[in-house]
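Example S7 (structure tokens).
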């Protein structure tokens, strides 16, 4: 198994799953390669613990003291080089690198015939029109790791065809501002936005969850994963984060997947599919369940959801533009240069200003990404 983004929250949770199997004397996964952006000390410790044969670090200057015999790849293409040098057809690649940087490694893994446990939503948001056909042509599986998409993936196993599905619905916790007015949201601080009530994630994903841009990206990702149009994909607020997704069938039956908010559950499912085993994640305590609440999303306070449906309808490079503009806007918010509500405004204005083009190659996605970043940077104070 190769773990891309091994030092992040998804990566460390995936290693928790592997560690739990080994604790019980079951060596179900061999960690062949690890990749990270810059945390040399953490990835070196992981390589020692799991006996990784190769390590990739995007930061060419980061200090790293690897065990003897461990191959080291450095630079912006390090993950691709590691996969090219060590991966074989049928290997599993857990793709958890953050942002657009995760796209090229996923395509490299697909070209090598590796199955993908996908935790990098930007891969499909920005380049779904390339990635999904490439996976189909290579005969490899893409199993989603995000809790919502993994929930849909599990519920869809009851269908023989997507024609039987009326719609799919992803749930959103609503984040820290679920009950705040738009005026109150205009005054929130960075610390307020980073205080997610349910999940513990990195700063970028946490801000995306607060603005519901994370859910917007997930709607676009669901479009590519399951081949559904915008009108058959929806989202709903569910603050307890127990129900992660619904699939409604034509006959009126609705299947839902429930589990405590513990990312190790969908990670293990994606890694082990189609088999199931005991694992380290928390289990649902039915005796403690008192209520499950749901509410529609307020599009005035959370305009990101409308932007997602727009991107699905427009297609082409619209997803790359959305993702790039959002990355710039979130970075500007975390740097204190714009207010919270301005994140979605920067993204919307960038989408208004740059017409989507056909997406025929990865170069098209990267060109749209660069143009969107340049435009979005011009919209935020230096």
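Recovered sequence:
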């Amino acid at each position: 198994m190769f773990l891309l983004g091994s030092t992040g929250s998804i990566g460390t949770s995936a290693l928790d799953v592997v560690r739990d199997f080994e604790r019980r004397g079951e060596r179900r996964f061999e960690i062949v390669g690890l990749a990270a952006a810059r945390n040399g000390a953490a990835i070196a410790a992981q390589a020692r613990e799991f006996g990784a044969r190769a390590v990739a670090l995007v930061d060419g200057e980061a200090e790293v003291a690897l065990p003897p015999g461990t191959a080291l790849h450095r630079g912006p293409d390090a993950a691709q080089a590691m996969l090219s040098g060590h991966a074989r057809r049928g290997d599993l690649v857990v793709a958890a690198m953050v942002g657009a940087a995760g796209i090229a490694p996923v395509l490299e893994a697909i070209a090598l015939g590796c199955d993908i446990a996908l935790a990098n939503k930007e891969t499909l948001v920005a380049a779904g029109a390339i990635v999904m056909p490439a996976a189909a042509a290579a005969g490899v599986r893409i199993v989603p790791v995000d809790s919502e998409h993994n929930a849909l993936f599990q519920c869809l196993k009851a269908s023989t065809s997507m024609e039987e599905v009326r719609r799919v619905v992803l749930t959103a916790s609503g984040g820290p501002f679920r009950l705040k007015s738009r005026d109150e949201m205009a005054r929130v601080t960075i610390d307020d936005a980073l205080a997610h009530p349910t999940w513990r994630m990195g700063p970028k994903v946490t801000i995306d969850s607060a603005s519901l841009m994370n859910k917007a990206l997930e709607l676009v990702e669901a479009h590519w994963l399951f081949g559904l149009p915008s009108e058959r994909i929806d989202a709903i607020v569910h603050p307890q984060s127990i129900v992660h997704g619904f699939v409604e069938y034509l006959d009126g039956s609705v299947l839902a997947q429930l589990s405590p908010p513990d990312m190790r559950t969908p990670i293990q499912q994606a890694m082990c599919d189609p088999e199931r085993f005991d694992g380290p994640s928390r289990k649902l305590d039915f005796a403690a369940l008192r209520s499950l609440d749901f509410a529609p999303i307020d599009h005035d306070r959370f305009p990101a959801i409308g932007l997602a449906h727009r991107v699905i309808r427009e297609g082409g490079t619209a997803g790359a533009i959305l993702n790039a503009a959002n990355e710039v806007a979130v970075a500007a918010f975390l740097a204190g240069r714009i207010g919270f509500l301005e994140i979605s405004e920067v993204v919307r204005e960038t989408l208004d200003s740059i017409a989507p083009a056909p997406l025929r190659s990865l170069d098209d996605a990267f060109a749209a990404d660069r143009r969107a970043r340049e435009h979005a940077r011009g919209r935020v104070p230096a």
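Notes on this example. Residues 149-262+293-314 form one domain.
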